[in-house]
Design brief:
There is one protein chain. By secondary structure, this protein is α+β, with helices and mostly antiparallel strands. It has three helices and eleven strands. The strands form two sheets. Strands 3, 4, 5, 6, 7, 8, 9, 10 and 11 form a nine-stranded mixed β-sheet that branches. The chain has a two-stranded antiparallel sheet with strand order 1-2. It is globular.
Length: about 200
């Protein structure tokens, strides 16, 4: 029996994983301490375990957050569409710092994408404005016979292109850009998008 798939999605199956042309996005909602679907209302879990297949450093505006450093994270999780679809999410602030520490530890230990499971958990914080949450991370090594290892390796061997067509032009990959260059480029984009005066 052939499964159903939206024609407009043009999903590409690579190494047993689906990388949709229309990005499947999830959000880490740090106001309520929940992972949610892109609609912002449908909750997934407050503790998400995932494997990272790609990271991209970003800078700019997304939602209500302006002029911030982000990481664009692509991953798979058994808690998201049974681990068959590559999802995309964006992480910033202290959560990004904590994730960066774990990624650096993995790099020093010479661990690859198919070696580790990242386990995220929302940590309650308070300030003068009330309660909010940040993401904390732990890692554990995937068992040698875990099928995710081969699926991830086979998927990455196809050199997939990670492109989220849903992000605004005010959020962009930084690559080798300096912080000053990022700020100046964002200023130029904002100016181009600003409607002309009547």
């Amino acid at each position: 029996m052939t499964g159903l798939m939206m024609r407009s999605t043009s999903a590409i199956t690579k190494g047993g994983l689906i990388l949709p042309e229309l990005t499947y996005s999830i959000r880490n909602n740090c106001q309520i301490g929940q992972w949610v679907q892109s609609d912002g209302e449908t909750t997934i879990t407050n503790e998400l375990s995932f494997c990272i297949v790609h990271l991209e450093q970003m800078y700019g505006d997304l939602g209500k957050t302006k002029g911030a450093h982000w990481v664009q994270l692509w991953g798979i999780s058994d808690q998201v569409l049974k681990g068959q679809v590559v999802f995309c999410t964006y992480i910033k602030g202290r959560s990004l710092n904590l994730l960066g520490n774990k990624v650096l530890e993995a790099h020093i230990a010479e661990k690859g994408a198919s070696d580790l499971l990242f386990k995220s958990k929302f940590i309650r914080q308070t300030n003068d404005y009330g309660v909010y949450y940040i993401l904390g991370f732990e890692t554990e090594e995937l068992p040698a016979k875990d099928p995710k290892r081969k699926r991830i390796d086979d998927f990455l061997a196809t050199n997939p292109i990670f492109l989220d067509k849903n992000i605004p032009p005010t959020l962009f990959a930084t690559s080798d850009m300096t912080p000053e260059a990022c700020a100046e480029y964002l200023k130029l984009i904002r100016a181009e998008l600003k409607p002309p005066k009547a």
